[in-house]
Structures are given as structure tokens and as C-alpha cells.
Write a structure and sequence with these properties.
Layout lengths: L29 H6 L8 H11 L10 H16 L6 E9 L6 E14 L4 E4 L4 E3 L3 E6 L4
Antiparallel strand pairs: 1-2, 1-5, 2-3, 3-4
């Protein structure tokens, strides 16, 4: 074929040549070949950042003096009955580890002890709740 004449179809000169096989590299297994065509998410961290930013957190509630006095009375009553290991339900603030704010969580169980040195309420299942994060105490002993 004369090189000065244009080819009727692009790449016609190599269209029917045999497929080249490397003598230095073994053929890739089909399972590995499929993996090279897996979707590539260049912005994966971007989507995670958007999801994290969209996640809702609450601000910590600041109790007024009346609510603080009521909570203090309940803690004194809880301390008086601690030897009975009463069943209690606590509503407390759990700070978010990733961003400002947090969420309010309820925990229920039987009181194991109140550790005033570490300022923790410890339930029998091992749950330890910081006293300063508790905003509500309820249970049969408070009625």
C-alpha cells in the first residue's frame, strides 16, 4: 500500500494482526482484569465530609437554678438509696467526637455506685456516665 494515499478505514493496516502476547509478563487473571475497571471515586473523602457536616448534633442544655436544685435533690436521694441498687433512668449529654455539640442519650439500669471522686454514676452493666452531663434522673425511688 502506498503511504501517500489515505487509508479507507482508520487503522486498517493493523486491524487483522494477531493480538500481541508478552514474553516477559504472564497473562493477567480475569478476576484481576475486572478489578482494574472498578469505579474510581476521586471525591470519596468529599462525600464523607458532606455527610459528616450534614449530621445533626445538639447543643448542651444549660439547666436553670430550679432544675439544678431538683437534680441535686434527686442525687441526694439516689445516694441515700445506693445500697439498694435501685433501677434508674438517666438522660445525659454525650459530646460528639467529631464536631461541636453532641446528642442526648438515655440509659437505664440498676445503680452499681456513684463515684463522687471521678464524678461518675456507674450502672451494674458497666455503663459509666459523667455526673456533670446528666440533666434528668428518674426511677421508682424518685416518685
Amino acid at each position: 500500500m502506498n503511504r501517500s494515499q489515505p487509508l479507507p478505514f482508520p487503522y486498517e493496516d493493523i486491524l487483522y494482526l494477531p493480538h500481541p502476547v508478552s514474553s516477559a509478563h504472564p497473562p493477567m487473571p480475569l478476576s484481576d482484569r475486572a478489578a482494574q475497571f472498578a469505579p474510581f471515586a476521586a471525591l470519596a473523602s468529599y462525600h464523607e465530609a458532606v455527610r459528616e457536616e450534614a449530621r445533626f448534633t445538639s447543643e448542651r442544655i444549660e439547666l436553670d437554678e430550679h432544675a439544678k436544685d431538683l437534680l441535686d435533690k434527686k442525687f441526694r436521694l439516689l445516694q441515700q438509696h445506693a445500697h439498694l441498687h435501685p433501677q434508674v433512668t438517666l438522660l445525659y449529654f454525650l459530646p460528639d467526637k467529631e464536631k461541636a455539640g453532641g446528642t442526648y442519650v438515655s440509659a437505664a439500669g440498676f445503680l452499681k455506685k456513684t463515684d463522687w471522686c471521678r464524678r461518675m454514676v456507674i450502672l451494674q452493666d458497666g455503663t459509666a456516665i459523667p455526673i456533670d452531663d446528666i440533666i434528668e434522673l428518674s426511677g421508682a425511688i424518685f416518685t
